Amino acid sequence: MSVRARPTSPHLQIYRWTITMAMSILHRATGIANYAGMALFVIWLVAAAMGQDTLTSLNYIFASWFGQLVLFGFTWSLVHHMLGGIRHFVWDTAAMMEPGQRETMAWATIVGSVVLTLIIWTIFVWAA
Ligand code: HEM
User: Fewest CB within 10 A of the end CB: N or C in the chain?
Assistant: First the structure.
């Protein structure tokens, strides 16, 4: 049987990347990362409930450079996702939907998430 050429839908690769498109994808990616991060938080709570020795062992892993990298990433993911959520809340009021405004909000999300994460880590980790 011969295969007929059928119309195909545009593939992701043919679209020109826009900042709003990247933020949309990042919002879902950070949502998924938040699940993994919350699992780490639950593991930490369980370790605390199990006693001082278990907690000390887990804190040793979390305090390693790799543990700190993961926790820093989780903090950024939470903050980025939260700002993305607030962006959606603003859109729910039908504001900031015009061209230019959408891009401003997208850049504010990415810059704001990095700045807020650095502030949180400075206050609660590095200067604590
Ligand atoms: C640990 C906490 C959180 C987890 C695990 C989480 C997880 C997720 C995931 C997986 C999605 C993607 C759903 C999809 O695209 O099909 C999502 C979407 C969403 N999240 Fe979260 N989220 C968390 C916290 C938050 C917070 C704090 C806010 C608001 C400040 C928020 C607001 C939203 C909104 C508005 C959407 C829908 C975005 C859209 O319609 O495209 N989330 N969340």
Answer: N
